[in-house]
Amino acid sequence: MRIRRLGVCPEFVAGDATRLRELVNPWADSSFSGRYSLAHATLSPSQSSTPHKLAAHELYYILAGRGRMHIEIETADVEPGDAIEIPPGATQWIENTGPGALMFLCIVDPAWRPEIEEILPSSSAN
User: Fold this and answer.
1) What is the pTM of this model?
2) Cβ atoms of residues 118 and 51 within 8 Å
3) Structural domains of the chain sorted by starting position, each given as residue range(s) with its CATH number in brackets
4) Cβ atoms of residues 35 and 111 within 8 Å
5) Is residue 55 within 8 Å of 89, Cβ to Cβ?
6) I need a surface site. Which of 22, 61, 104, 111 has the fewest CB within 10 A?
7) Is residue 100 within 8 Å of residue 110, measured between CB atoms?
């Protein structure tokens, strides 16, 4: 049985400026045989992630807080219980619009690794 506890996963600031804890990723842990990665992300109040693109499918699942998701020219308010599909190659970012932390899960298939992510200039958000 494989259990990864969030509290023991080191937190780091990702290229898109979210605080991440990677729970599973086959590129970082050869004992995990899946092809996807799973990370827990946090954005503080009034923060936004940096616009970016992934060459993979991504799914955000909102756990806590309120936010506004941007995918290409579409924008939508998001809240706990929402699952947001992000197609490969789409410009995306999320902003925290609530008074508390915005927390969400990021599932990437195939698994996230640096070479599949492109961080864009902040002006891409306009």
Assistant:
1) 0.93
2) no
3) 20-120 (2.60.120.10)
4) yes
5) yes
6) 61
7) no
Alpha-carbon distance 79 to 66, whole Å? 5
Which helix H or strand E contains 59, and what residues bound it? strand 57-64
- Listed residue (25, 36, 28, 26) closest to 59, CA to CA: 36
- The kind and range of the H/E element at 75 are strand 74-78
Q: How many other C-beta atoms lie within 10 A of the C-beta of residue 80?
A: 13
Span 26-76, pLDDT tens digits: 988 888 889 999 999 999 999 999 999 999 999 999 999 999 999 999 999
Distance CA 99, CA 30 (A): 39
Which of 92, 108, 102 has its CA nearest to residue 19? 102
In one letter, which amino acid is 85? E
Query: What one-letter code names the amino acid at 25?
Result: N
In whole angstroms, how far apart are CA 107 and each of 59, 93, 111?
A: 5, 15, 8
Distance between CA atoms of residues 48 and 68, nearest Å: 9
